[in-house]
Amino acid sequence: MAVQREGLKSQPEFRRWWKASRKRWKYSKNGIFPEQPELAYEGEWKDWDDFLGVPLPYAEAQKVASTLKIDRQEMWWAYSRERATELMELRLPSRPHIYYRKEWQGYDHGLGKPMDVPLTLPRLATGEWSRCQHEECAVEEEDEDEKDE
After folding, report:
1. What is the percent of the chain with per-residue pLDDT over 70, rounded to a whole number?
2. Average pLDDT of 48-65?
3. Are residues 66 and 40 in the same domain?
């Protein structure tokens, strides 16, 4: 939803933004954002955090992220690049290590994986980072190789 791109975090912020912006075109499914979206979207309304796209609290985000079947850190990065809209709808930040700075203990913990299985990019004997073995990443790497030629 377009209002989520505004970065608003609360109902009072939305009200101030709406009053300042009401003369400009702000598109939604009705053409212009309603002043009281909780009434206009009554059948689908959950709460202000959902409407504004405020990221989930860390514990909830962990549970949701664990359902995405992401095994490694590089898979998270590929997922966040390719499915940014989906992450926004799930209310997961694409850069969780920044958003959840205080709670963050690494991608393995953030993705709800057992702590004894680290999700890091392995280094090769040459000291370079190894390439991701995930199908989506392999396609992306092939595309990059073609660009280099």
Report:
1. 67
2. 90
3. no
Distance CA 92, CA 99 (A): 10
Number of domains, the chain: 2
Sequence-separated (6 or more) residues with CB below 8 Å from residue 2: 26, 27, 28, 33
Sorted by sequence, the CB contacts under 8 Å of residue 67 that are 6+ apart come out as none
- Label residues 12-47 b or e (16+ Cβ within 10 Å = b): eebeebbeeeeeeeeeeeeeebeeebeeebeeeeee
Which range marks the domain in which residue 124 is found? 58-148
The pTM of the full predicted model, rounded to 2 decimals, is 0.63
C-beta neighbour count of 83 within 10 angstroms: 15
- Considering only residues 53 and 149, tell me which one the structure prediction assigns the higher pLDDT: 53
Whether residues 36 and 71 share a domain: the answer is no
**The pair of three-digit structure tokens given for residue 69, joined into one six-digit string:** 């079947």
